[in-house]
Amino acid sequence: MHVEALELVDFRNYRHACLQLTPGCTVFVGSNGQGKTNLVEAVGYAATLRSHRVASDAPLVRHGAESALVRLRVRRGERAAGLDLAISPGARTRAKLNGQQLTRTRDCLGLVRAVLFAPEDLALVKGDPAVRRDFLDDLLVQRQPRWAGVRGDVDRVLRQRGALLRAVAKRGGRADAVDRATLEVWDLQLAAAGGELQAGRADLVEALSGPFEAAYTEVSGDQGAPRARYRCTAGGDELSGAGPAGASAALAAAMPLRHEEEFRRGVNLTGPHRDELEILLDGHPAKGWVPADRPFSAA
């Protein structure tokens, strides 16, 4: 697969840009601040419907414009397809595939497959767990677009469940019978969708472990033994191979144990939004790892 053409309208600093691309290596050369990274960001957005640099879509729209357009023509073998993405701050991104409006924007996922590495990716090691969870979910979606629906289901249930918990917390954490019955309903839905997502993440981490360890060793030699593992709020790191049913059962059993604390604090405490992708070197978190024979020195 390769991108044959890229057109931007009111995207970042571009009023209008149109590029014709060929297979192989393409290098953008220019001074700082001219928008080279913005071109790469646009392709990454088409692949994931997310920016690797900002959390919301508003910064993607050129100052003074109401919306932005990212248009690509993608070729895979003898087949070509056109994708148009209309980005409007505060509204859902609209997508057209070969000129036809898509009812669900996420149906375009999988058309563009991209691997993006940027300075922001250092947050995979140094940043918060949410960065690593998003990395796994984005990769799941690129491999199989159906995961976008699972991810959306989890987010929806967490919003509804969290709203219930916040309402009870405002009453001092005193939950009545209706509150508890409603929470049990949300538990069932979170166990189903959340367990499926957790199992998918765990299997993905297992599939990545071999290439990750080989790539790290090739770059760093014998400086630390690398390991990646997926840690669950329910089930620990034993989910790999358990499948969605096993992950859902573990999550369903764990949630009631923290109901009272959730009612008091008004937040979801158990689920895939609390899990972690751990990156370890010699069994220690890579974020602060120092080789045993090379202790840190301020000198």
Distance between the termini: 50 Å
Q: What is the CA-atom radius of gyration, in angstroms?
A: 22 Å
Count all strands and give the number. Answer: 9
- Average of per-residue pLDDT values: 91
CATH architecture descriptor text of the largest domain: Up-down Bundle
Shape: globular
Give the SSE order as H and E letters.
Answer: EEHEEEEHHHHEHHEE
The largest beta-sheet arranges its strands as 2-1-3-4-5-6
Task: Give start-end ranges of low-pLDDT stretches.
Answer: 295-299
| CATH H level, superfamily name of the largest domain | RecF/RecN/SMC, N-terminal domain
Per DSSP, the total helix count is 7
Main beta sheet: strand number and arrangement? Answer: 6 strands, antiparallel
Class from helix and strand fractions: alpha+beta
CATH topology name of the largest domain, in short, is Glutathione S-transferase Yfyf (Class Pi), Chain A, domain 2
The CATH class label of the largest domain is Mainly Alpha
Helical fraction: 25-40%
What percentage of the residues does DSSP assign to strands (E)?
Answer: 15-25%
**Overall structural domain count:** 2
Describe the structure.
With 299 residues, the protein is of the alpha+beta class. It has 2 domains: 2-108, P-loop containing nucleotide triphosphate hydrolases (Rossmann fold); 120-288, Glutathione S-transferase Yfyf (Class Pi), Chain A, domain 2. It has 7 helices and 9 strands, in the order ββαββββααααβααββ. The strands form 2 sheets. Strands 2-1-3-4-5-6 form a 6-stranded antiparallel beta sheet, covered by helices on one side. It has a 3-stranded antiparallel beta sheet with strand order 7-8-9. β8 and β9 form a beta hairpin. The chain starts with a strand and ends in a 14-residue tail after the last strand.
